[in-house]
Design goal:
mainly beta, Methylamine Dehydrogenase, Chain H
Length: 348
């Protein structure tokens, strides 16, 4: 009897595994997408090796973001947006916005919650034929229809909206957060902009605030809480924005570190930040849990694995460093073929 049970055990386990996979509860497979000079490199987080290099553009990428449906990875090179198909990991499309009489620079962008539109923070300069005069337009938020490949709406927005601080609110398609000289909210139904967190123009009774740069480490399917470190004359803090409903909160840091980018753990308990150090912050108290100096020097982006066990720091040059999130011990360094400044994790 026992022998028969042991013979049936492998088949039973295989059946259970199949049922789990079919029900969608299977373990996620993590990849880091790292755009570098003239190529996109894709890293398998299970082996921490580059598994594919996609030489699909001749450009320098300053910003990137996945579509919420995970089907595209968009890369911003100021004058163009490149779309990578995440199923084939090949170039799916290129969107160019300038023409002979119009120069358009995309300073920052986001993908709409329905994955059908791009929100572009644009600097636009136009001229007329045979007239030696340039018309410099106020900063514009351009709504770009991806399928139709055309602008469908535009809004005048504050100066300084750059990088990755354009945040669509998932539960309200008419709300868009803009981070620049201040953090403001654009009502796309009325076109009105209102500040809610002042940097250069703080609320009455508050100090002026500043931040070094804005990186967006969000991954589709995660908690959706954007974080940004900011500085005052007397200390530093962290601005948290829930992109599901737009609710904001702040955490005061007990120590001051120079930080480019931050990412929040899936359980929302810890915040990790990097520039010249890797820092682990308790989000409930603002206390520093641990800090280590980065062995490879200054880095820009940070990406967490879906299980929260590893954090990828960089690039800030031509490599990524992998750390254990518990001990902040360096686990390894992944060489890249060129320099880069952004990276994001995709879980499939």
């Amino acid at each position: 009897m026992k022998n028969n049970i042991y013979k049936l055990l492998p088949a039973f386990l295989m059946f259970c595994f199949s049922m789990i996979s079919m029900s969608g509860i299977g373990i996620a497979k993590d990849f880091i997408y790292a755009p570098v000079n003239n190529a996109l490199q894709i890293i398998d987080c299970s082996s921490d090796t580059v598994v594919k290099t996609v030489p699909c553009y001749n450009d320098y990428i300053v910003g990137a973001a996945f579509s919420p449906d995970k089907k595209r990875y968009y890369l911003n090179a100021f004058h163009s947006i490149y779309a990578i198909d995440t199923k084939t990991n090949e170039l799916a499309d290129t969107y160019r916005f300038s023409s002979g009489l119009s120069k358009v620079d995309v300073l920052g962008f986001a993908v709409s919650s329905d994955s059908k539109k791009l929100y572009l923070s644009c600097s636009i300069v136009k001229k007329k034929q045979n007239i030696p005069k340039l018309n410099v337009y106020p900063p514009q938020l351009v709504v770009y229809d991806i399928k139709q490949k055309k602008m469908v709406k535009n809004y005048t927005i504050p100066y300084g909206v750059m990088g990755a601080a354009i945040l669509p609110i998932r539960n309200d398609e008419n709300r868009l957060i803009l981070g620049g000289l201040d953090f403001s909210e654009l009502n796309m139904k009325t076109g009105k902009v209102k500040n809610f967190f002042g940097l250069l123009n703080p609320e009455k009774g508050n100090e002026q605030r500043n931040l070094l740069a804005i990186w967006n480490s969000l991954t589709p399917g995660d908690h959706g809480i954007f974080s940004a470190p900011y500085y005052t004359a007397t200390g530093m803090g962290y601005l948290l924005i829930d992109t599901k409903d737009g609710k904001t909160s702040r955490v005061t840091g007990k120590d001051v570190f120079f930080e480019y980018s931050t990412v929040i753990s899936r359980d929302k308990r810890y915040l990790y930040a990097a520039m010249d150090e890797l820092v682990k912050i308790d989000l409930r108290t603002g206390e520093t849990v641990k800090m280590v100096h980065l062995e490879r020097g200054t880095c820009y982006a940070v990406s967490l694995t879906s299980d929260g066990k590893k954090i990828y720091v960089g690039p800030g040059g031509n490599d990524l460093s992998v750390y254990d999130t518990d001990s902040l011990k360096l686990l390894g360094v992944i060489p890249l073929q060129a320099d880069g400044v952004v990276a994001h994790r995709l879980s499939l």
